[in-house]
Design brief:
Pfam families: Phage_integrase
Keywords: DNA recombination, DNA-binding
Shape: elongated
GO molecular function, one term: DNA binding
InterPro entries: CB, DNA_brk_join_enz, Integrase-like_cat_sf, Integrase_catalytic, Integrase_recombinase_N
Order of helices and strands: HHHHHEEHHHHHEEEHH
Largest sheet: 3 strands, antiparallel
Helix content: 40-55%
Distance between the termini: 49 Å
Protein name: Tyrosine recombinase XerD
Length: 314
């Protein structure tokens, strides 16, 4: 008999269950990483918990875990065999130069051995800048917390970032947007194999693209939409931004029509779905909440048709 317990949600907040479950999964990952890190970082973990979004907290912890693993692997700044055993005294001896070597030399290209292969990892400047930010917050906090003698972050080398580029959907011309929406309407430009699936999901795809084009929603924001997110009588719908901020958006007549068309004429009836997905708006053919990856592939497919390019470049 299995000893595993199922997760039950007693949700007294204004957030829908799927947002609560999503955040809980991230929090559990955070706790797991924190348990693997040195105990002297506990105050920093409490600081992160109260000052940043759970997704940012996880990103910082992943980067700090990676930095600590590097220290153990190099064995130049610590004698610990496990990252949990790195001492505060050893951490206090780390210089800005050591972090600059980690970011500028090790992180740009590093190797990991598996039982079968040697894996090569490369980081671009954006990824390096995020790692720098994560490590900086740790060292700044520990200095303010009187755990470190010096604030070494002023000596970290700058990392040049490219100018932010608008995402692909915003680079489309008006006629290309029209062509994309025509494609999802009538299947033009799709392969015969793609048309098999298109016939089953065209109303869903049309609703996704209409919301994406009209409001510029992020993939995760689209993914987390529920039927209950929409209040058609008041002409609005609710989304949750990256930091968990709740935002009410006005829904225009065109988007209202395509969303209703999908809900009433293509989406499986909620009573036929597992409890976890009864309220989920966009479903896969397996009747599960559509993943962010699937939505990205869907958008790339239709934008590639409108731009007359390959699926990978869409």
């Amino acid at each position: 008999m299995s000893n595993s317990k199922s997760l039950k949600i007693h949700n007294k907040s204004d957030k829908p269950d799927n947002i609560v479950i999503r955040d809980n999964n991230v929090i559990e990952r955070c706790i797991s990483i924190e348990n693997s890190l040195p105990k002297f970082m506990k105050d920093y973990f409490i600081y992160l918990k109260g000052s940043v979004a759970v997704s940012t907290r996880l990103a910082y912890l992943v980067d700090i875990q990676f930095f600590c693993s590097y220290l153990v692997e190099m064995q130049e700044l610590t004698s610990a065999k496990d990252i949990n055993d790195i001492s505060l005294e050893e951490f206090n001896k780390i210089k800005a130069r050591d972090v600059n070597l980690f970011l500028g030399d090790y992180c740009t290209r590093y190797y990991k051995q598996t039982s079968k292969n040697t894996l090569i990892f490369e980081n671009n400047n954006r990824a390096l800048a995020r790692k720098k930010s994560s490590i900086s917050t740790l060292f700044k906090f520990m200095y303010r917390n009187e755990q470190l003698d010096n604030n070494i972050t002023d000596g970290f080398n700058p990392i040049k970032l490219p100018k932010p580029q608008p995402d692909a959907i915003k680079r489309l011309e008006i006629d290309e947007v029209a062509k994309m929406l025509d494609s999802v309407e009538n299947g033009d430009g799709l392969t015969e194999k793609e048309k098999v699936y298109w016939k089953k999901t065209k109303l869903r795809d049309k609703a996704i693209l209409a919301l994406f084009v009209t409001y510029g929603l992020r993939l995760n924001e689209l993914r987390e939409l529920n039927i209950s997110s929409f209040n058609f009588s008041r002409g609005e719908f609710k989304i949750y931004r990256k930091r968990g901020k709740e935002v009410l958006m006005p829904i225009n007549h065109t988007c209202e029509l395509v969303v209703k068309d999908y809900i009433y004429n293509e989406r499986p009836q909620s009573e036929l779905l597992n409890d976890e997905y009864k309220d989920a708006l966009f479903l896969s053919l397996q009747n599960k909440r559509l993943t962010s990856k699937s939505i990205r592939q869907l958008v790339k497919k239709y934008t590639s048709i409108s731009m007359d390019t390959s699926r990978d470049n869409g």
